[in-house]
Amino acid sequence: MRMLLPIVIGILYAAGLYMLLRRSMVKLIIGLGLLGHASNLLIFVAASGRGLVRGGPPIIPAGSDRVAGPMADPVPQALVLTAIVIGFAVQAFVLALFHRTHRAVGTDDLDAFTTTEES
Amino acid sequence: MNLLLVLPIVIPLAAAAACLMVWRSRRAQRAIAVVTSFALLAAAIAVFAAVRERSFLITELGSWPAPFGIVLVADLLSALMLTVSAVIAVATTIYSLASMEARHERFGFYPLSMLLMMGVNGAFLTGDLFNLYVWFEVMLISSFVLMVLGGEKEQMESGIKYVTLNLISSSFFLTGIGVLYAVTGALNLADIARALPAAEQPGLVAAIAVIFLVAFGIKAAVFPLFFWLPASYHTPPAAVSAIFAALLTKVGVYALLRVFTLVFVHDPGFTHQLILLIAGLTMITGVLGAVAQNEFRRILSFHIISQIGYMIMGLGIFTSFALAASIFYVLHHIIVKANLFFISGIVHRIRGTYELKRLGGLQTLTPFLALLFFVPAMSLAGIPPLSGFFAKLGLVRAGIAAGEFPIVAAAVATGFFTLFSMTKIWNEAFWKPAPESTELPGWRAAARVMMVPVIALALLTVAIGLGAGWLFSVSLEASEQLMHREVYMRHVLEAGSR
């Protein structure tokens, strides 16, 4: 796990950027989604301080005043959860926007989007 | 527990909810919007007055003490930004009463602009990095919808560009937060600033600083990350592009000012020199881009970029006088730029086009509007005694004092080209005889209302010019607070123990 997740994150970033650089609008959406997932996973892994902790809930047992043993940091998980929710809403908007744009412009090719560049 | 700081966030939220409840009634939504914007202005002035008195206002949300819970912090910079954006909210609301088409109003212009204000105010007030990300997203999602409000083909195209680049910026921001949390274990800005020196990983910290520079640089539209701005700002309705031009990039500038004075100050030889270089390139590319344009709002859009260069120039020089000049510049620019976009909207209302080639003759048609254009245009170019002159003067003096002569030369040259651009608009739109004398029916009645905020902002520009000494001394106090970050950190981190 320790090596696997960073590699997965790297692949996600690379794939996301590659998709963003394509000319197709659909691939652009996928690319944005992949970038979002990559940064979420990065927070999850990198922000867990001394690595991921399995089976160490951050709960103080009854009768004690500190957590026994290593614990999983709950903050990054809260962050990722928030980021996922925001990302979901934004993706929904982006899908709707792209659908409308496709109907208005009539093509999936981003290079044809030149109306706003002519002056 | 100080509830005053919650008002600038809660007021627009409540107003947006109220607008949704009266979705079918345009009149009720308009009334709510007007009342809300004035309430927002009152709240912002109250915050400003309280900050002047006590120098820091801190609210711990949910009464969780500082590094654990989210805090709202108002220092002088936040209070100034809040106040000036509330002024823009009032002006835009009044302007949109006469300028927005019914179909735009029916599809939620008012609730969306209220939510936009909520995001902007939240970003100015929060003292927590992740919370800043959330406010950015609130602001962005409202701006996405406002950008494509009306659904014209070119709005859709520009919307795609705007949305894509801003989402990339958000993912950079999120990545930066993740890595920074890994290094410091903190999210509260003051706590990060405290924990960062102990990290002892200068290479990693510099990399994080650059990630944040890219993330906020895209929002602030600096060179070479500005391409979304001139591609999109000239497509939405005039009131929308005015509020975007005034506030959105400035939130990015605010975030840069905040983060690069509070958190990333360990290696100014690298980070702040980089910012200074970017500032110079932003000024020059922006203003040269504007020279090549022939459309009213596209010229203005490129000028936003060149002006952003000035704003971060003070941050790059990184003395308290230079920062004060930057803050002064931001305040002046918000008012002037909104006003110029308002005027472009009035011109569009009269002639039905933004193309300079097809404009003309407005000087004889409505000399008063010509005069009103003259004030912000000359202020933007930096002609005394208007506000822009003092803003530029401050930056140039700070640059000379710091021995940064290339950036001073760039700033002066950019001012010259700005004057050229404004003269071009003046000549083409107002002075030359009209090539085709189209006048849209009913423009006089509409323009009468639309001119109210224009007059108010023009007077404000003159007032800032005349009262530059006072505003500059306030900006200087604000920059002193930024330069003495240990005071900010102490106030935030010890707020719970008081």
Helix content of chain A: 55-70%
Unreliable segments of 5+ consecutive residues of chain A: none
Q: How far from one another are the termini of chain A?
A: 53 Å
**Largest interface, C-beta closer than 8 angstroms, per-chain residues:** A-B, 39 and 42 residues
Q: Percent of residues of chain A in beta strands?
A: under 5%
Which structural class do the helices and strands of chain A define? Answer: mainly alpha
Oligomer: heterodimer
Radius of gyration of chain A: 20 Å
What would the principal axes of the Cα set say about the shape of chain A? Answer: elongated
Mean pLDDT of chain B: 90
Strand content of chain B: under 5%
- Note the run of SSEs of chain B as H and E: HHEEHHHHHHHHHHHHHHHHHHH
The largest sheet of chain B has its strands arranged as: 1-2
Uncertain segments of chain B: none
Helix-strand category of chain B:
mainly alpha
Largest sheet of chain B: 2 strands, antiparallel
Order of helices and strands of chain A: HHH
Helix segment count of chain A? 3
Report the C-alpha radius of gyration of chain B, rounded.
Answer: 22 Å
In whole angstroms, the N-to-C terminal distance of chain B is 11 Å
What does this structure look like?
The complex is a heterodimer of chains A (119) and B (498). With 119 residues, chain A is mainly α. Chain A has three helices and no strands. Chain A is elongated and about 70 Å long. Chain B is 78% helix and 2% strand. A two-stranded antiparallel sheet of chain B has the order 1-2. In chain B, helix 2 (26-54) packs antiparallel against helix 3. The chains are: A mainly alpha (119), B mainly alpha (498). At the A-B interface, helix 2 and helix 3 of A face helix 6 and helix 7 of B.
List keywords for this structure.
heterodimer; A: 119 residues; mainly alpha; B: 498 residues; two-stranded antiparallel ribbon; 78% helix; globular
Brief digest:
The complex is a heterodimer of chains A (119) and B (498). Chain A has 119 residues and is mainly α.
